[in-house]
Amino acid sequence: MAVSRIISSLLSRSSPATSALGRRSRVVQRWFSSSAAAVDEEAITPPVQIHYTKLLINGNFVDSASGKTFPTLDPRTGEVIAHVAEGDAEDINRAVSAARKAFDHGPWPKMSAYERSRIMLRFADLVEKHAEELAQLETWDNGKPYQQALKAEIPMFARLFHYYAGWADKIHGLTVPADGPHHVQILHEPIGVAGQIIPWNFPLLMFAWKVGPALACGNTIVLKTAEQTPLTALYAAKLFHEAGLPEGVLNVVSGYGPTAGAALASHMDVDKLAFTGSTETGKVVLELAAKSNLKPVTLELGGKSPFIICEDADIDKAVELAHFALFFNQGQCCCAGSRTYVHERIYDEFIEKAKARAMRRSVGDPFKDGVEQGPQIDAEQFEKVLHYIKLGRDSNANLECGGNRVGSKGYFIQPTVFSNVEDNMSIAQDEIFGPVQSILKFRDIDDVIKRANATRYGLAAGVFTRNIDTANTLSRGLKAGTVWVNCFDVFDAAIPFGGYKMSGIGREKGVYSLNNYLQVKAVVSPLKNPAWL
Ligand code: NAI
Ligand code: MG
């Protein structure tokens, strides 16, 4: 189902899960049943216990080699949630050795694909069983609305593993007719040890996009989580071991980018690297891979995605969808519809309504029912977003609403709308990664295609029109890995995702993601009797 539909229905009413949760215990009732509150009130503490804060290497939770830890912070307050073992190069070495041993000598790559699939299915079932704890940890660490985590992201997380479990026993090679009396088999083999570096905006979903296909293909993994959000991956990896995953197959190292992340990208014994994050860091890891052992790299990077609203659009629907396209997840989406192009004939009405919608957006403690927007992830991102708002204010764009922080603690920012934005302004060029909508005016379809494509990015695009010819012209003309027509942010395990241009290299999800984790081996042998050809 479209995430947009799930989210908007969730946020507009109290959900059954909320009341079920409320019934479970008095503690739970207390933390969840209080009514919507201002940002500066005391932050709600979820009932989940934090059990896993160490590195997960070779099936065991261990301290970092240096003994160091780092704090993971609550973005609602900036206060410490937990101290987590801080992995660096030495821990990456240990984790890569464990993954290498599990690949070369362990059961995983040689296990029947059916059995691999069953372990992955058991894991997905455990995720569903532990959905509330996972969602609570995700919201606590990241600041996203709890209902979004519980009702949209955790089910999608489980779905991704159900999907990839389905692939495990359907990955097979080919035989091909070669010119000459030869028998030719094409084998699809796992690539080996996969290094995976993920960001903080969707910690569990990014875990699934990476870990799912790698495991389905029989690889072993060292996963480096984002330093802002280490908690849920450790919990999920523990569940994977409960489901029967052999030791050393999935190792999780928490830590910082320039230390643990760089060590993984440049490791000589890592056979493949997958990265999601900024375009700048994407370039760094690609270089590290090239300078070390030329491991193949897939990159899922930034975006500045256009959302084009044509003159025939139902304006109210377009306003709601454009609002969702940008503000979902506090605007922290690689594919956010962050350039809203509106046809000149409906422009003025659209601006009024988009502004009114943004002003109605409820900002507050993400654990509260009905809150649509929590805090930005950390002080650095908070400052970055406010910096871009300042650049917008200093330009000829009109600040329609928002523009300031909300409250006096944590990293909350008002939903902000700029109109009269021009293509060359920084707010129309750079990835802001926050709740800032930039609205631009257009007249002509061919011209808006050129303008929409005039960016270094090419991750996604949205089109809103009732005219099939306009939809076809736009979706063929836009240079983007995904074009959503009359919808936005529709994700499914089966739909490939990735970017043109500097938005990345390769595709994740769907059948396309499997190739990232497979080697292709041609086995050629003579046929004694050419008549068998
Ligand atoms: P980042 O790209 O620096 O971090 C993403 C991951 O890369 C994290 O796990 C980080 O520890 C790791 N990393 C950082 N430096 C590294 C290095 N030298 N070697 C190896 N790994 C390294 O992104 P950051 O700093 O969190 O956010 C900066 C901007 O990136 C955001 O404002 C946003 O524009 C963009 N971004 C895009 C995301 C996407 O989904 N494509 C996700 C997160 C951020
Ligand atoms: Mg960074």
Name its key features.
533 residues; alpha/beta; Aldehyde Dehydrogenase, Chain A, domain 1; Aldehyde Dehydrogenase, Chain A, domain 2; 2 domains; 7-stranded mixed sheet; 6-stranded mixed sheet; 17 helices; globular; binds 1,4-dihydronicotinamide adenine dinucleotide; binds magnesium ion
Write up what this structure looks like.
With 533 residues, the chain is an alpha/beta fold. The chain folds into 2 domains: 52-301 and 508-517, 3-Layer(aba) Sandwich (Aldehyde Dehydrogenase, Chain A, domain 1); 306-485, Aldehyde Dehydrogenase, Chain A, domain 2 (3-Layer(aba) Sandwich). It is built from 17 helices and 20 strands. A 7-stranded mixed β-sheet has the order 14-15-16-13-12-17-18, sandwiched between helices. Helix 5 packs antiparallel against helix 7 (146-168), helix 6 (131-142) crosses helix 7 (146-168) and helix 7 packs parallel to helix 8. It is globular and about 75 Å long. Residues 10-37 have low confidence and may be disordered. The protein binds 1,4-dihydronicotinamide adenine dinucleotide and magnesium ion. Magnesium ion binds at residues 257, 281.
Quote the average pLDDT: 93
Work out the helix count: 17
Q: Structural class from helices and strands?
A: alpha/beta
Largest sheet: 7 strands, mixed
CATH fold node name of the largest domain: Aldehyde Dehydrogenase, Chain A, domain 1
- Which ions and ligands are bound to the chains? 1,4-dihydronicotinamide adenine dinucleotide, magnesium ion
Query: Could you name the ranges where pLDDT drops below 50 across 5 or more consecutive residues?
Result: 10-37
According to DSSP, the number of beta strands is 20
Instruction: Specify Rg, calculated over alpha carbons.
Output: 24 Å
**Which class of the largest domain in CATH terms?**
Alpha Beta
Strand residues, percent = 15-25%
CATH superfamily of the largest domain: Aldehyde Dehydrogenase, Chain A, domain 1
State the shape: globular
Helix content: 25-40%
Q: Can you list the strand order of the major beta sheet? A: 14-15-16-13-12-17-18
N-to-C span: 48 Å
CATH-defined architecture of the largest domain: 3-Layer(aba) Sandwich
Q: Give the number of domains.
A: 2
